[in-house]
Amino acid sequence: MKGKMKVALLVCCAAVFSMSLVAYNYQQIPPPTVTMLADGVYHYFGFFTSSLVVISDEEVLITDPSNPLRAQSLKEEIAKLTDSPVTTIALTHEHYDHVGGTGVFENATVVCHRNCQTVFDLDSLGDVPQVDETFDEFKEIRVGDKVVQLHYLGPGDGDATTIVYMPTERIVATADLYEPRALTHKNWVDDKNFTGVRHILNTISNWDVDHAINAHSPGTDPVDLQENVEYYNDLYDAVKAAVEEAVAQAGGSSFAAYGLFDTLPQTMELEKYSDWGQYDSSLPRHVERMLLAIYHGD
Ligand SMILES: [Zn+2]
Hints:
- By secondary structure, the protein is an alpha/beta fold.
- The protein has 2 domains: 3-176, Ribonuclease Z/Hydroxyacylglutathione hydrolase-like (Metallo-beta-lactamase, Chain A, 4-Layer Sandwich); 235-296, no CATH class.
- It is 37% helix and 20% strand.
- The chain has helices at 3-24, 68-79, 96-99, 115-120, 194-204, 222-249, 260-267, 279-296; strands at 33-38, 41-46, 49-55, 60-63, 86-90, 109-113, 133-135, 138-143, 146-152, 162-166, 171-173, 211-213.
- Helix 5 (194-204) crosses helix 6 and helix 7 packs antiparallel against helix 8 (279-296).
- It starts with a helix and ends with a helix.
- The structure holds zinc ion.
- The site of zinc ion has 6 residues, from helix 3.
């Protein structure tokens, strides 16, 4: 997107977002934090959302500017660290709370998994970016002497979930798959493929990392990742066992699992996680979504 159209969209988006600021009292958003994770690598956390920031003498790579106001804040914080321009924006997935605001970084190349575009083509609000480069399974980007890898490991939170990995610095940005000691809120699970999330989390838990960034919390402790691997494995095992039992009782008919949609979400407990945030409100939806993924594929 170029020139006037880009400016118009930016102004339009800023206006729309300003209205939502009033509605949601966004004036009370905490100031952003910027944490150095390794030499030239930072975690920006602002507007309740994470960005990885990778800096070299020549250029900067960021993830997920999210929206124009947040992008402006991110730009200001980066300017305190370097004079290098943002040249690459890697989007961790297609969801609109992550992909807006790219126009704030003029001339940056926007990279997203190829599945982003099919969703962006359905956009209703006019706040999706122009994608400049796509990839299928893997893409490696160099920022000075740093290597940034983009991994597509299948459907997760949406269909374009991209795990950003810096093997030398031992840092992973895990898109929007989990929160520390909390179940993802029930309102945000409809587009999560639960067996896909389990697969991705299990895969990246085998990578040696010192920091694991997640989308909507400020911490980067890999323990949070490992605990969520356990949670998704436990949820999977419990739901799968219930499906297998129902099918066995029905003499092997997989149609027996239909009935579980009316009962299992209301009855299943995972006591081990009962002190996690949003356990009571969101576990039934997690059970339902895992049941659907096991039984139906998504
Ligand atoms: Zn998100």
